[in-house]
Write a structure and sequence with these properties.
This protein is mainly α. It has eleven helices and two strands, in the order ααββααααααααα. It has a two-stranded antiparallel sheet with strand order 1-2.
Length: about 270
């Protein structure tokens, strides 16, 4: 078997093991579905109170129903955002688990990438699809084929960006083991810049313009605006090259960070 074929086979095997692990924890999966369903409901209550007390029917480009749909979309596409990678890498490094991967022909980062594909596929199937069904019947979604295509591209870009970004931050553990404070700060900052708390178009124009140049909007804001139709198709398409640019930059950063991290492999937890 050629090296390329062996690598593909190893990647598929890792994905299969990851999927089997997820299906073994059914209760945990049910609780995750309920937890993800609760977030848009909570946001609907919070924003509904704001709309009711101010007597307005829209805030910026968002009606209340559009805003609720934004948060449903955020939770669906959010399954492609790999926040847990930072914590997982930190655990593997500080507990010496990483050495198992370094002695295998299929490297640590490729293993993580294969597991991430399996994780995303599983969570999208068991959480993303039910969320979409609930949103469809609760809000009434009128979605075009173009919107579906754009959402798919945005989700893939979000996956690639988040893998490179969070893997790079996870490598901090090689230099500063047990750094939960740093990871928590990173999560909050990224969520803020990605539009997890409030759609970015509600922010002042100058701030919104700057955040549109950053990679984080692909995690939540851009998919939310795609689904709600608050941003034109041409404006959305114009953002896609920015995502591809950041994928190239962040994977280059990950390469250099990982190269530096491996040099410390004998001094940190392994």
């Amino acid at each position: 078997m050629s090296n390329n074929a062996q690598s593909i086979y190893s990647g598929i095997s890792i994905m299969a093991i990851s999927l089997k692990r997820h299906t073994a924890y059914r209760i945990d999966t049910i609780l995750m579905v309920l937890s993800n369903l609760s977030f848009p409901v909570i946001m609907a209550i919070v924003w509904g109170a704001a709309y009711y007390t101010t007597g307005t029917t829209s805030i910026g480009p968002y009606s209340l129903s559009n805003l609720v749909l934004y948060y449903f979309t955020m939770m669906i596409v959010g399954k492609f955002v790999l926040k847990d990678l930072m914590w997982m890498i930190d655990y593997d490094v500080t507990n010496g688990q990483i050495i198992r991967y370094l002695v295998r022909p299929f490297g640590y980062l490729p293993s993580n990438f294969a597991e991430a594909i399996a994780d995303v596929s599983f969570y999208f199937a068991v959480i993303g699809v039910p969320l979409f069904v609930v949103a469809y019947f609760a809000i009434g979604i009128n979605i075009s084929a173009m919107q579906v295509a754009l959402l798919a591209v945005e989700a893939l870009i979000a996956f690639a960006i988040s893998f490179a970004l969070y893997s790079s931050f996870g490598c901090i553990s090689f230099f500063m083991p047990n750094s939960p404070g740093i990871y928590s700060m990173v999560e909050v900052a990224v969520d803020l810049f990605a539009g997890a708390f409030v759609p970015l178009s509600m922010l002042p124009g100058n701030v919104f313009g700057i955040l549109q140049l950053l990679p984080f909007q692909f995690f939540y804001n851009l998919p939310g605006e795609t689904m709600t139709g608050t941003l034109s198709t041409s404006a959305i398409i114009a953002q896609l090259p920015i995502g591809l640019f950041w994928i190239a930059i962040l994977f280059a950063v990950l390469f250099f960070v990982w190269t530096a991290a491996r040099k410390r492999i004998n001094t940190v937890g392994v």
